[in-house]
Amino acid sequence: MLQPFPSGRISVYSIPAPDAERASGQESPRVSYCPSYQEGVCQKYHFFKRMKLCFWRRCLLGILPTVSLTVTAILLVLHYSLSPAFSFTYISGSVEIPNLTYTNDLNDPTSQKFLLQAKAVQNYLAETYESSFLGKYYLKSVVATFSEGESGLRAYFWNTFWAPQDMVASLKKLTPVEQKEICSKQAAPLFSSGEEDFDLDTMELFVSDSIEYDVMLKSVSFDLYAKPGNNRTLTLMNPKKSFYQWRLRVPSNYVVRLVVITLRGVTPESCASHHLSAYDFLLPLQNKIITRWCGPGAWTPSVVRLTSSSNVMLLTFSLDRRGERNILKAHFQAIPKIICGGHYTSWNGTLSSPYYPSYYPPNIDCTWIIKAPLPGYKLSIKILVIQIQEKSPGSSRCDKDWLEIDGVRYCKALSENNRNREYGYSVEINFHSDELVTHRGFYIEYKAFSHTDRCNPEKLNCGDGKCKPQYKSCKDDDSCRQDSEENNCSYKSCSPYAYKCLNGKCLLKPNPECDGKRDCTDGSDEMNCACGRRQLKRTRIVGGEDARSEKWPWQASLQMGAHGHVCGASVISNRWLVSAAHCFLDSHSVRYSVPMGWRAYMGSHTINEKSNRVAVRSIIRIIVHPQYDQSISDYDIALLEMETPVLFSELVQPICLPSTSRVFLYGTVCYVTGWGAIKENSHLAKTLQEARVRMINQSVCNKLYDDLITSRMLCAGNLNGGVDACQGDSGGPLACSGKGNRWYLAGIVSWGEGCARRNRPGVYTRVTALYDWIRRNTN
Ligand code: ARG
């Protein structure tokens, strides 16, 4: 398991560079050319001795896919080397330094810590650029600020160049994506992976200009951090200076919501020198503007809410000094990052852009699939609000931000009669926002209907001329004739999305089980609910350690004699454990398939814990799924019957089994736990580990794993790598919480390529797909 508990740093693995890149030889850095008046700026840095420097041409060979950009870059250099006019230009960006944490003293650019950290980054950038083909134009790198990164410390910097003017102009004409490509791959081919001090996968680079740089230098800065639940205020009254900036930060799994309440003094006619701008970055880059207020009608007196795409936002206020009565009042807060999209099967509902009515974040893609609950029904969709960034002037299609319904893109206001349309039984809806400029977003309404069923859209046809609300059935209400045919009223078999009550009735309400409401008339949805709850004691010993085994009380360790811990398992009742089938395959020397050798340990925290609170049980039966397919790990599930029932305590509790219809939307955060290897090819963990992973879209995962993902599997992890289950975690739980802090067994640790590798998420046995089999065999 690759994340120490309680929530230590995620292990980050360097991704092996492609062979061609690795083949690059070692060469001492070239002495770069310095414009004479800037002589002092050019220094040779040898800070990162371990960094393998390579000659840029050889490096370029390693990046054939971007060969056309390479050629462009070379031509640019050749051509503009001859051109006489030079000017300052800037490549700014950010990068993460794993292992380091963001602390408050990093807010202060004069602190020892800031200076040290900044120097390390600056040296690295200097060394890299000086050895690249831009080396002769390179002057210096400056770290402006830091923030909390996803798995380390994020540094924001500017690189200054003295370069041919025309070359800069051409670079600026490129799209942000091309700029990024040129800046990272071409201008500095030495940014290669494998460097441990910087996580180069997190590097972002942009061509910027002196205006942006000047604004940053001249601004009066405020550095603010908001913890979840805190509101931090920003006020500016009668400002004496011309430039102000607020660098807003929140913890890394949150986004910044800025609420601008009052804005006075953003006057017409003064757009160039007078504006309030919000950026999706901590540097004032044109490429990262979320929105800007200036000019006529910039501010209609209403509150505006903006959302960032990550855990930082920059707000700048540029004023011409004449406006003395300028006022800005705003506050910001940390809000949890949402994963947008999902599958919905419903008679009606609404959908909106992320965080609506707040401005949607830049750089987001969402996909929703909406289905009518019954075949024969269709969907009608009405766009109630659409305020998104419009297409570029020459473009025929929405090319910046868009809402796409059934393949048709929308990005501007619609007239009343173009807002409503009918679709088929299922509709795919996509939303895309680019890196720049956001608005309020969209809000749509959908309804299922049928041209033939007069009871539509929300009523059930009882076949006797009566229509009933869907959640009732025709039979159990006297408004339906007693002898009414069952299949006119309810449906013989539930659709996979419907929950099936014990009496066979289907519910359309998503995830009705154990939600505290009786949804089935026979109450069966609230029946097997003594599960999935932690029995955490309220009183804690001050300064003591968390009683961590109480946190995952369904976790069991399956051990076999001298072999010790082999696999994980989950307690699902006082007699039964669920684990993975592959744990019980015989090897040359060990007969893992025989129940006798196994012991299940429940309630332990450290692996060989000797405590009377730990429950140990022998196994009398192992039921491996009859369709278990060893070659592809399909149906990787086994049930273990304990010799005597286990007593539940705060240390031992069963986890809830999710019924077939339960949905775990992709993006949902779940936890995988176990004593498995702490990294690939490493030893087992001594104490129980937990890792926070997200559910991954099935088709995305299937693509990553070359169609090896069957419907009895699901993927969870982090596509950037770094967090995952590993050898020895197999059979253990992937637990997701539902209503009322109840935990459900969404998956069983099954397989994965390596551990925690990028784009190789963990693959789990999909418990919902095997629910009926589990119930049948354990009752
Ligand atoms: N098969 C492994 C075991 O027996 C578990 C592998 C899980 N791998 C992963 N990358 N999630 O313990």
Write up this protein.
The protein is mainly beta. The chain has five domains: 18-82, no CATH class; 88-210, SEA domain (Alpha-Beta Plaits, 2-Layer Sandwich); 219-336, Jelly Rolls (Sandwich); 342-449, Jelly Rolls (Sandwich); 545-777, Trypsin-like serine proteases (Thrombin, subunit H, Beta Barrel), CATH 2.40.10.10. It contains ten helices and 38 strands. Strand 18 (402-405) and strand 19 form a beta hairpin. Mean pLDDT is 78; it is low at 4-67, 471-492 and 538-547. Residues 676, 724-730, 749, 751-752, 755, 762 line the site of arginine.
Number of helices: 10
State the strand order across the main sheet.
27-28-29-32-31-30
Present as ligands are: arginine
Overall geometry comes to: globular
% residues in beta strands: 25-35%
CATH architecture level-2 label of the largest domain = Beta Barrel
Low-confidence stretches: 4-67, 471-492, 538-547
Q: Report how far the terminal alpha carbons are from each other.
A: 32 Å
Query: What level of helicity do the residues show?
Result: 10-25%
The main sheet comes to: 6 strands, antiparallel, barrel
Mean residue pLDDT? 78
Strand count: 38
Number of separate structural domains: 5
Report the C-alpha radius of gyration, rounded: 30 Å
CATH topology of the largest domain: Thrombin, subunit H
What structural category characterises the helix and strand content? mainly beta
The CATH H-level superfamily of the largest domain is Trypsin-like serine proteases
CATH class of the largest domain: Mainly Beta
